[in-house]
Amino acid sequence: MSVAESPKLPGSPRRAGNILFGATALLLCAWVLVPIYLLIVNTLSSPEAVTAFPKSFVPGWDFANLEFFAGFAGILKALKNSVLVAGVTMLLAILIGAPAGYALSRFDFPGKSAFRILILMTRAFPLPLLALPLAVMFIRTGLDDTILGLAIVHTTLALPFSVLITFSLFSGIPIELEEAAWTLGCTREQAFRKVVLPLILPGIAASAVFAFVISWNEVFAASVLTIENRTLTAFLLQSLDVSPMHLKFAGGFVLVVPALIFIFAVRKYLFAMWGIANR
Amino acid sequence: MDNRTLPYLLLLPATLFLCVFFLYPFALVAWQAFTNEAGFTLEHFRTMADHWKFPIAFWNTMLLALAVVPVQVVLSITMAMMVTRMQRGRDIMLYIWTIPLGISDLAAGIIWLAIFEQTGFLNSMLYGLGVIEQPTNFLSYQNTWVIFIAIALAEIWRATAIMLVILVAGLGLIPKEYDEAAEVFGASRWQRLWKVTLPLLRPSLQTALILRVILAFEVFAVVAALGGTSLPVLMGETYNYQFELQDGHVAAALALVILAISIAFTLFFLRVLRVPKGAQI
Fold this sequence. Notes:
Chain A is an all-alpha fold and 279 residues long. Chain A has helices at residues 12-43, 47-51, 64-71, 75-106, 112-121, 131-141, 147-171, 175-183, 188-217, 220-225, 232-238, 245-266, 270-273. Chain B is flat and about 70 Å long.
């Protein structure tokens, strides 16, 4: 990625411009971070402090909220379901998506553009709505209210991303490397395993994490498709009217924290995902 | 393995998966919307349209998209241009600005609930500043416009990051020489933005807008967290029909409405922001 040099203007206008620039950047950081900070304050204060007024703007370092959250009937099961669904989604999205990404980056063949159109089409569709017809289909096949059923819906959400991400990752590895391995006597499969795979693995991991986050965060399909095996998002959504404030905030906190860590883990790859493959 | 069959084998799982779980279900949803026991019918659409909430939900969804997306376009372009000019602290800035990318709409709704609720931070701050004597209930059904603003803020807060990422990636693809050439010829920074960078950024802008607008029509959990039932939107009504009222047919009809406006806007952006062949980089 290129970083444009800012032009060298002499004297004070440039200085003032720089200060303005820095101030705007910091303001935008605050815009992102302050709401998250406030959620953390609410989570780490006692339930009484959450409904007290006026409210303190620093956390009370009280873990009663999180303890209440962990002890709330059904929450831990919902948390477990969320992790399981996201885990299965991650596996499916990579196992199905990565081969397609490889094919798109390495071969020219009739039907390639048709496949790309199919992938791009998924973007023009509000995918969570798939939950409606699939609910019917799943009841017929016994997949209703199961981890796998929901993971399948989440995979349709994550698959286009994993195809495009792996496509751009594979495109970033020169085919000459593979060709060199072939001339040295490797089969196509060996060359892939010994040359391409080690290079691509961190990127694959990043796109897997991305699939995990997509599933972890999804609300609509999860709420429509699960009854007994609710995920955390479905659980929180359906108890919005009845749960006390501090439970909502603790729930929001638990939803946000893994996302923060994951985004940090994949930050290097976020932009590769949206580069050339996107055009 | 034969080089001619290999790509098809590699594509087979993804193609099959998308046919079974993407194309077929959308055919199924159309079928559900247009049929009852007797066969073809428009009854479900009539039930949907006759409900007093439908026009409100429709216009709320549209107005929300209209309020949110233009702000996000300006904000994400500004942020992306700032990132490319940054010399120090670029990585940390990008990380912070993209944090909301990983935050679910439900969590975003809850976060902004912490600010807008009756004993929330906005009330506490206004009280601390002496603006108000006692906490006001911002999110009551009596002032839906405050709920609207809260939802719009939460959406802008949460979903600008996805556009930022697409635009930053897009800017990285534009060769620096174009901008430098324009500078040599004396174009001001503003002129370079409008005449060089933004036209070259068109494919990324298109992707970002399509993705974002469709997500805007899907707005659901933020609304549920902040507005409850005071501010109906299309996706929320779909959920009600499917889950609360157990009427899959009307839910399917609503789904088709959301689908139709999504496709209409996708086609619109594809047309308006199309890149002529030969002008691609």
